[in-house]
Structure formats: C-alpha cells, structure tokens
Amino acid sequence: xxxxxxxxxxxxxxxHRIAQGDSLIVDQYLRATSEWEPGSSGVTLHHLAxxxxxxxxxxxxxxxxxNLETGERLPLLDAQEEQxxxxxxxxxxxxxxxxxxxxxxxxIAQSFERQVTPGLKLLGYDLRDRGVPAGEPILLTxxxxxxxxxxxxxxxxxxxxxxxxxxxxxRESGLVGADFATSQWRPGELVREHYSLPTDGEMTTGxxxxxxxxxxxxEGPVLEQPLKVASVWVQSTEPTFDVPPGVNxxxxxxxxxxxxxxxxxxxxxxxSAGDILAVTLYWRADTRITRSHKVxxxxxxQEGNIVGQxxxxxxxxxxxTTSWEPKEVIADRYNVEMSADLAPGTYLVGMGMYDAxxxxxxxxxxxxxKRLPQDRILLGELSIRR
Length: 386
Known about the structure:
Elements (H helix, E strand, L loop, with lengths): L3 E8 L5 E8 L32 E11 L20 E7 L15 E8 L2 E8 L3 E3 L4 E9 L8 E7 L5 E8 L15 E8 L8 E10 L11 E9 L13 E7 L3 E9 L2 E2 L4 E10 L7 E8 L5 E7 L16 E9 L7 E11 L8 E2 L11 E8 L2
Parallel strand pairs: 7-13, 16-23
Antiparallel strand pairs: 1-2, 1-3, 3-4, 5-6, 6-8, 8-11, 9-10, 9-12, 12-13, 14-15, 14-22, 15-17, 17-20, 18-19, 18-21, 21-23
C-alpha cells in the first residue's frame, strides 16, 4: 500500500558517508510499489557518484528501504525471518581514476592553499559543523594535491588549541587509507580524505582552533609550527556563572522579564559575499525560564530586507532556555552564511527571541527600559567588501 525508496550509501573505514543514492523503487512500467501486484519482483539500477578525489581502497556499501512518506526504514529479515537491522552490509572497491581531475572538480568548501612539503599541497578543507557539543567529534575533510610524487609516506597530526593558544588535544592518523600511501601518488594527484577529531566532554564553552601538521617516516613534524586551519565552537552543557574574559559588556538589554543580553561579538566585522558571519551572544538568566525560546539572528540591507538569517534553540540546540539556571551566563554562537551574490555595502545585524511553540516574539527592551521596535536588538554594522 506504500511507496518505498531504496537507499544505497557508501562509508569509509571511519564511518563517514562519502556517497549516497536514494531513489524511488519503480518497476519496468515506472509504477511505484503501491501499484504492484502481490508476488511481483524485479531489478532496479541505482547510480552513486563517488566524489572526485576519493582515495582508492575498500569501502562499506549499505543498502536498505524506507517509506517515502514517513522516512521509516523497513526491517531487514534473514532466512529465518529474524530481524537483522535495517540495512544490508556489502563491500565495494574504489579504484584509481584513469585521469587526474581538475582541482575545480573537488568543490572545496573553504580554500586554504598551503604547500606543506616540496611535493605536497593542502588545497582546502570542509567542516561538517562549525560548532559541536563538548564530547562530540569534529568531522573534517581535507583536500590534497601532489605537486610531485611524495618521497615519503606521511602521517597526519591534528590538534586543538584553546583561546590562549594552549594545546587541548593532539591526535595522529594516516594521511589517507593504507591502500593509497602518499608515496604512491602520481604528480598532480588530487585526494580528499575525511577525518574525525574527538573533543573532551569536560571542555568549557568557547572557540577552539583546529591545527594541522604532517609527520615524516621518522615520526618527526614536517612543519616547525602547525598550520592553524579553522575555528570551531565547542558548546558545553555545564552551567557557568562568570562572564568570559574579554567580553565587551553592553548596557543591559532585556528580553521578557527573565533574560538579559550582556554582550556580543561579530566576526568578522568586514567580510566578502559568501563568507560566514560568526555572531556570539552572551546571555544571563535572571530567573528560572519556564518556556523554550528560539533565537533569530538577521542581517538587513539598507531597505530593511533580510539578506541573511539563522534561527535556532540556543547553544547549538542543546541549551534550551528551560535548562538555564538562575544567574547563569550562557555563551551562544550563530553562524550566518552570506549569499555569494550579496552586493558590496553596509548591512545591519540584529537579533531577538521568539516562543518556540507559538512563534510570538519575546518583548525586547533597551537599557532605558523602553520596548524596542519589532522586539529586535540591533547589534552593529557589517561591511561587505567589493
């Protein structure tokens, strides 16, 4: 009676999904399963695009079926009709491409061109999330290019630094899978690889810096100082009652009768179209909050039109207002992506809160106690460069 969709997913040895193909199951007459007669059977063909630069080697292939309308997966049954999860595990081998692709085919999210060794260049990276709960891993994709055949098999060293530059953690792993060591790379070879860097569940809320270095065959670092690749926000659920050092405090803004906005940071204050604006808000719970609120962060053009937006439960979604302790101070990060076709000029950044159930905005008041227009707090200006 239902229409079903087949999923075919490919995973690497670390559990990262590198390719996905979901398609409606239809017969030779293009009829969905709700139109099939009992006892019908057939063959379907599913295509998966393996991303350019995927290193050769063995990968896991998972196949299953789900209800198109509800998304619920069907159980997988063995010959004895015993349930064996919701997907079949197969194996697939990815080979070496006959041609070396163009770097533009990699679709790199963040360009970061650095020549790490005479024969090896880092082209860029992609972070799945720019913020993670403490204890959850940071998932990173790196894009490499061999300028010449590397003379050694290099290993990767990833690290985390706190806001003061002190090391929080450091992990080592293969640069790529064992089936494709760097000494096997051809001149011009392009390789993408996925990595996972754990975070400590005891880490405090704040920004950390992700660093990168290579280790040679003698286990010595290739670079005297690791490369600082990206910043990641780590969100803890542990309450704190102190304002973080260095926060520029505001004349208090109030939202409702239970929340104060103590300060904020806009990074960067000047950006290019397509950049990500990081907005950090610092709240104080003045009393216990009984309803869940969402935060909105808007970027406005000179006519007041919204050209960038991020709405979310505070604290990456894991610190709802109902969990805030009285007098607790909460640091809260929002990443707003600027459209790539945004015209150069000056824009305004504003924010506020609304009830998560009804959508009604929470009254916002200035330091003089007067209610603000549109229950919105204007934080400052953002300049978009030419």
